[in-house]
Write a structure and sequence with these properties.
Blueprint lengths: L10 H24 L3 H12 L7 H15 L5 E6 L2 E7 H4 L9 H12 L10 E6 L14 H19 L6 E5 L16 H8 L1 E6 L1
Parallel strand pairs: 3-4
Antiparallel strand pairs: 1-2, 2-5, 3-5
Helix pairs in contact: 5-6
């Protein structure tokens, strides 16, 4: 069988096919990049350049960790850099009274000082305040309010403190999860049942 030869008039088909292929590859790369979190992108940039990016989530974590050590707040606030962003976990048992959405007065000033470290980055990042409870059913004297209400009310209380120190409300969102989002088992090894429940009672300020 004689192979078909392309005339000069059909040469544009090959160029067109190459263009379409390159466009598909380009859009595939864009889609892949869109699924990478900001913290992961910053990590990749640091690995490529060998220099930590200014105002990166990793550098913010270092600043907050230094403040935690300075204030002696290791039992009150923990940090964790994840693909979802930088998480500041507030121990609800120390920040709030049992069953209450009101921040303890003795923790109020310390919490404000900690949150103020985030203000310089408020124009660059968004903030999600997550409320979590343990699995024990909660109800107030009316028997109406539940763990959903408690988790959301506590998140709202911390959201109010963020606004108070200077973060615009447009940069903040509030999320209440009750007891639906547990902690990884690896973080609870060796803890008593009471300590495990206490770890789940937390409010998280997530910077993303």
């Amino acid at each position: 069988m004689r192979r078909r030869s392309y005339s000069s008039d059909e040469g544009w088909l090959l160029s067109y096919a190459d263009l379409i292929t390159n466009l598909l590859i380009f859009f595939a790369m864009l889609l892949g990049a869109a699924e990478i979190s900001r913290s992961r992108m910053q990590e990749i940039a640091q690995q490529l350049s060998g220099v930590e990016q200014p105002a990166s989530l990793a550098s913010i974590q270092q600043e907050i960790e230094a403040r935690i050590a300075e204030e002696g707040l290791q039992d009150v606030i923990r940090t964790d850099l994840t693909d979802d962003g930088l998480k500041l976990s507030l121990n609800s048992g120390l920040v709030f009274a049992s069953g209450s959405p009101v921040i303890r007065e003795e923790q109020s000033a310390v919490l404000d000082r900690m949150l103020m470290t985030l203000v310089p980055y408020a124009g660059q990042y968004g903030f999600a305040v997550e409320g979590h409870t343990d699995s024990i059913p909660f109800a107030d004297e009316s028997g109406v309010r539940t763990n959903w209400d408690l988790s959301t009310d506590r998140a709202n209380a911390v959201r109010g403190r963020l606004e108070r120190v200077g973060v615009l409300k447009e940069r903040i969102r509030v999320e209440g999860y009750a007891d639906t989002v547990g902690l990884p088992e690896s973080t609870l090894v060796g803890l008593s049942p009471e300590e495990r429940l206490a770890r789940h009672r937390r409010v998280i300020v997530r910077i993303y």
